[in-house]
Amino acid sequence: MPKTLHVFGHQNPDTDTIASAIAWANYLNELHAGSKEKFAQPNRLGEPNRETQWVLERWGVELPALIEDVTGLDVELVDHNEFIQSAKGIENANIKGIIDHHRIAGCQTDKPLYINMEPIGSTASIIYKKYEQAHMTIDRATAGILLSALLSDTLVLTSPTTTDEDKTIAESLAHIAGVDIQTYGKEMLVAGSSLEGYTPSDIYGMDRKKFEFGKIISYVGQVFTFDTAPVLAQKAELLSAMQDYIDQNGATLGVLAITDLETNNSTMIVTGADVALAQKAFNFTGDEADLPGVVSRKSQIVPPLTSAAQ
Ligand code: MN
Ligand code: MN
Q: What one-character-per-residue DSSP string does the chain give?
């Protein structure tokens, strides 16, 4: 019996990670429609955020099952490649493929594999292109979640990570899904960005990734909201929650970008023994920096931190 292929995205899953895992597993299953066993299975490495829950409910798509340890399993990674952002046991899994749109870092395999990586707005965009290339039909629900992933990662096609190709893909997906890009995108962002009932610790954790900048271990979180004032009003509590988290997880730099969905500006707050790295990268003093026009962690926050560490 062939082993099931487990398809999953990064820890602290976002909409692109979850939708890509589902759509890519669908694609692989369709490609291997002749086999009796289910070929691929989507998984997730953590609890879905509010936006992702809303998206899955909106399109009537089931949440993938949680997977904790992937030691010895056949896997494909979507929406990430850095082992420190991946599943427990990833070093001892059999990685069959990677589909991603991030930098390559800290990833090593002992066998050849398929890699589809592009500097494009979302992993969902790459998956759309794979469907196209295979002349495979995308059903309405799959189009709906892929569109959601693309609009989520690009903040409705406004982030600097958005390419012309993303815009064309969004139009095709919106057509299949039967929605208007702007109306649907705004509805999704509003539904997903409610911070009601979240503690400072939750806010730092909702979209947090681990990075190594030279020898400095850092956790970089990002929160999107239409109303930054109530978040910034809790700055002291946020910094304290961030400090606790990095202390408990062996890191020395905690970063949180609070991104305003209305203006597409961010405010960054920082804590830890290595705040000097962030201060150098973004040229500020103290624990807070205004970052006009900054919305993308992967293209506007991580690269300056990486350069500052060199
Ligand atoms: Mn992601
Ligand atoms: Mn992504």
A: -PPPEEEE--SS--HHHHHHHHHHHHHHHHHTTT-SS--EEEEESS---HHHHHHHHHHT-PPPEE--B-TT-EEEEES---GGGS-BTGGGSEEEEEEE-S---S---SS--EEEE-SSS-HHHHHHHHHHHTTPPPPHHHHHHHHHHHHHHTTTTTSTT--HHHHHHHHHHHHHHT--HHHHHHHHHHHH---TT--HHHHHHTTEEEEEETTEEEEEEEEEES--HHHHTTHHHHHHHHHHHHHHTT-SEEEEEEEETTTTEEEEEEESTTHHHHHHHHT--TTEEEETT---IIIIIHHHHHHHT-
